[in-house]
Amino acid sequence: MEYNTIRSKMLMPEYGRNVQRMVEYLVTIEDRAKRLRNAEAIVELMGTLNPHLKQIEDYKHKLWDHLYQMTDFKLDVDAPYPAPTPEQVFKKPEVIPYPQSGIENRHLGKNMDALIEKALKETDPEKKQGFTQIIGYYMKLAYTNWHKEPVHDDMIRTELAALTNGELMYEPGGYRVYFDTRTNFKNNNNNNNRNRNNNNNNNRNNNNRGGGYGNNNNGYNKNRKFNKNKNK
User: Fold this and answer.
1) How distant is the alpha carbon of residue 7 from its chain centre?
2) Lowest mean pLDDT: which of 4-13, 24-33, 171-180, 216-225?
3) Within 13 Å, how many C-alpha atoms sit on residue 153's CB side?
4) Side-chain half-sphere of 4: how many Cα atoms within 13 Å?
5) Which of 6, 39, 61, 75 is the least crowded, having the fewest Cβ atoms under 10 Å away?
6) How far is CA 199 from CA 187, 195, 202, 203, 210, in A?
C-alpha cells in the first residue's frame, strides 16, 4: 500500500494525482518532439478536467502555465507560449496602504464626516438647510440601528450643532412641508381619478338607459301593431 506521506508532493492538487504522475513521466521523456506531443495531450486533459477554465480569456495560456508549475518549472518544450518564471507566478501583489485618517465620530461612520464637510461648504442657504435635514435624519437612523431605541429630535439637534460648531442646525419636522405636498398631490390625483371614474360610470349608465328606452320603443311599436290588427 502506498501512503500519501511517501508520495511526491502535488504542486497543483486541483488536477489530481493521475495528472501529477503524467507530468512526472513527461519530464523524463528524452525525445523533444515526443515530449511536446505528450505535453499537448496533458494540457487537453487538464482543460477537460477543469471546464470552468475555458470561460477565461486565453485559457490555453493559463493551462500551459499550470503545466510548467506542476513540473516545478523544469519542463523544456517548444510550447506556443513563453515559459513563465517562478518570480512571475509567485509574485506578491503590491500592498495597498490602509487609510490612516482617524474618524472623529466612529458611531456615525466615515460618510457622516464627508456629508458634514459638503454641507459646510454649501453657499446656498436653502440647499445648506436641506443638507442639514438629511444629515439629521441619517443621524437618527444610525442611532436607531445601533441602540435599538427611539431618539429625540432635540438630542440630534444638539449633537449636530456640537459637531459643526453651531453652523448646522437641525430643524425637527423639516420634511413636513415636503410630505404634505406629496400627500396633497397624491390626494389630488386620487380625486381626479375618482371623478374620472364617476364620469365614466355616469356615461355608461346613460348609455344603458338609452338602450332600455329603445327597447321600450320596440315594445311600444309591437303593441301598437298588435292593437291595430285586433281592431281589424
Assistant:
1) 47
2) 216-225
3) 9
4) 5
5) 6
6) 18, 6, 5, 6, 16
Is the alpha carbon torsion for 44, 49, 55, 56 positive or negative? Answer: negative
Q: 226 pLDDT band (50/70/90 cuts)? A: very low
Instruction: Tell me the CB-side half-sphere exposure of residue 97, using CA atoms within 13 A.
Output: 3
What cell numbers appear for 70 in the block? Answer: 506542476
Is residue 147 within 8 A of residue 186, CB to CB? The reply is: no
Tell me the pLDDT tens digit for each residue of 189-222: 555 556 666 666 666 655 555 544 444 444 444 4
The tens digit of pLDDT for each residue in 66-87 reads: 999 999 898 899 989 999 988 8
Closest by Cα among 103, 108, 105, 135 to 120 = 135
**Cβ–Cβ < 8 Å for 53, 73:** no
Nine-digit cell string for 116: 458634514
CA dist., res. 125 & res. 122, Å (int): 8
Angle 181-184-188 (CA atoms, 0-180°, nearest 5)? 140
Phi-psi region of 148 (alpha: psi -120 to 50; beta: other; left: phi over 0): left
Strand boundaries in the chain, DSSP class E:
none
Residue 150: φ, ψ to 5°? -65, 155
Residue 46's nearest CA partner among 69, 67, 25 is: 67
User: Is the pLDDT reported for residue 54 higher than 50?
Assistant: yes
